[in-house]
Design brief:
The chain has about 475 residues and is an alpha+beta fold. About 30% of the residues lie in helices and about 30% in strands. The chain is built from 12 helices and 19 strands. A hairpin with a 4-residue loop joins strand 11 and strand 12. The N and C termini lie far apart (about 45 Å).
Length: about 475
């Protein structure tokens, strides 16, 4: 099938920098337009990845984006976000507002120093590379995190922070370590090679089906890295965490309609506008917008227009995209890959099992002890996030019982006693995994238009009004 490409005129990179210098990014924060949310309006010269940068800043601060309207035609980017904090309140903290404004403007100029916010405003998922980073993509097996952390403790590595995700029988994790004695990053190449060999031996010993297991160590860098985006990239490159949907999706839609919480992804051509239209409907959750935008960006697609909304715990996202080279998505293989990657991005952060928040005194080997206790009680860690603050270690773990039993209050109390810290059960209700993933297509391989409320008309009708709200930018 032929591909349609829409090329832009060539722009000199120096001219692009000049345009950004003359018309720098601008943010307006409006608390008067709506009673129940803060309106954040952003506009600047357009560049690939700018949408992700803005969404990343907002989600790193644990802000909830309930609606968004995006337009980036004509070399200019305009975006409107409806935002609240985690408790549903407007954003009124002046320090937070100033940080958002400064962070976005600094992001757009790579020559400027990184924003250095107050400690209580530093986003949790932006890790300053003061540590040695260990990246792993492995087969998901119960107790593997426990074994890896035990090896690191034996090798004199103190774990400062880490995040681990699992999906579709694959797992990825990033662990930041320091030398136990000096509390400084590990930079000696011989020692790094030895650590990598030991970890590779552990994960390979667990491998029974010949699946690939990758372990990589990186020395500290001078820039910051976004841990969760890197996790998405690791799982995308690994391929094992990507899963697709089945033909049962259309039947599911008929029976359950808009109350269905499965992940639905459809892709259609909009030839009259020169776009590919990507529709996503799924259960709403925090950071959903970041996960989908991150995936589209890393797949090298540019978002020209989008409309995002959530209603009754169901989120609807509609993107008008082209590939970075200007082409639309026309082949069925490419459509299938985009669908599968988006479904995986939505579901790999899906909450499964019991959420445990654990606070304990920071010490070397703590993660090994915590995960060992989980393993001894027959529990599997499906997702984890750990960090340290002064002398305190804080961790969030999602755990499930591999035998299918419910995790009782007595078991939680026993875990707390063995760990020797404070274990807070935040979500006692066991959540069901996202069992169905839907991609719409008929037997001929052509996408059927889903019976969803399309956001396209809403998007186009509001773009003109949104654009007018920004006014003109002066140097």
């Amino acid at each position: 099938m032929a591909q349609f490409c829409y090329y832009r005129p060539y722009f000199n990179p120096q001219l692009e920098s000049l345009i950004e210098h003359i018309n720098p990014p601008r943010i307006r924060i409006d608390n008067d337009a709506f009673k129940d949310c803060t309106l954040i309006k952003f506009d600047s010269a357009n560049k690939h990845g700018i949408l992700l940068e803005v969404v990343q800043i907002l989600t790193d601060l644990d802000l909830v984006i309930s609606k968004s309207y995006i337009s980036s035609d004509g070399g200019w980017f305009m975006d409107v976000f409806h935002v609240t904090d985690q408790f549903g309140n407007k954003i009124t903290d002046e320090a937070l507002i100033q940080y958002i404004q400064k962070a976005v403007c600094t992001k757009r100029n790579s020559k400027e120093a990184q924003v250095n916010p107050e400690r209580n405003l530093r986003p949790r998922h932006v890790v300053v590379m003061e540590h040695t980073a260990i990246e792993m993509t492995v087969t998901d097996q119960r107790g593997l995190l426990s074994e890896v952390s035990a090896v690191l403790a034996d090798l004199g590595c103190h774990i400062s922070a880490g995040v681990a995700w699992t999906h579709n029988h694959r797992g990825a994790c990033i662990i930041y370590v320091d030398d136990q004695e000096t509390t400084r990053p590990i930079t000696d190449q011989k020692r790094l090679c030895h650590i990598q060999e030991q970890l590779q031996t552990v994960v390979d010993a667990r491998n029974k089906n010949g699946e690939k297991q990758n372990v990589r160590l990186t020395t500290p860098a001078t820039t910051q890295t976004h841990t969760e985006r890197r996790l998405h990239q690791l799982m995308l490159a690994d391929g094992g965490g990507v899963g697709g949907g089945g033909g049962e999706g259309v039947e599911c839609e008929r029976h359950h309609g808009m109350t269905c919480e499965c992940t639905h992804v459809s892709i259609q051509s909009c030839k009259e506008k020169g776009y590919t239209v990507v529709n996503i409907r799924c259960k709403d959750r925090p950071k959903l917008l970041f996960d989908t935008v991150c995936t589209l960006t890393d797949l090298q697609y540019a978002v020209f227009h989008a409309a995002i909304s959530s209603n009754s715990s169901i989120a609807a996202q509609e993107y008008f995209v082209r590939r970075k080279d200007g082409c639309t998505v026309e082949t069925e293989n490419e459509r299938r890959r985009v669908r599968q990657c988006l479904i995986a991005a939505v579901e790999r952060r899906g909450t499964q099992g019991l959420k445990l928040d654990i606070t304990a005194k920071n010490r070397t080997g703590l993660l090994s002890d915590v995960t060992r206790v989980f393993r001894e009680h027959g529990l599997s860690v499906t997702r984890a996030e750990i960090g340290t603050k002064d002398e305190t270690a804080i961790g969030t773990f999602y755990v499930t019982d591999s035998s299918g039993r419910r995790i009782s209050k007595e078991m939680v109390e026993a875990i707390e006693k063995e760990i020797g810290g404070t274990t807070t059960t935040v979500a006692v209700q066991h959540e069901k995994p996202l069992s169905k993933s839907i991609d719409y297509k008929n037997t001929n391989g052509i996408d059927d238009k889903p019976s969803l409320l399309s956001l396209g008309s809403l998007l186009w009708s509001r773009l003109e009004r949104i654009s007018g709200n920004f006014g003109h930018i002066r140097s």
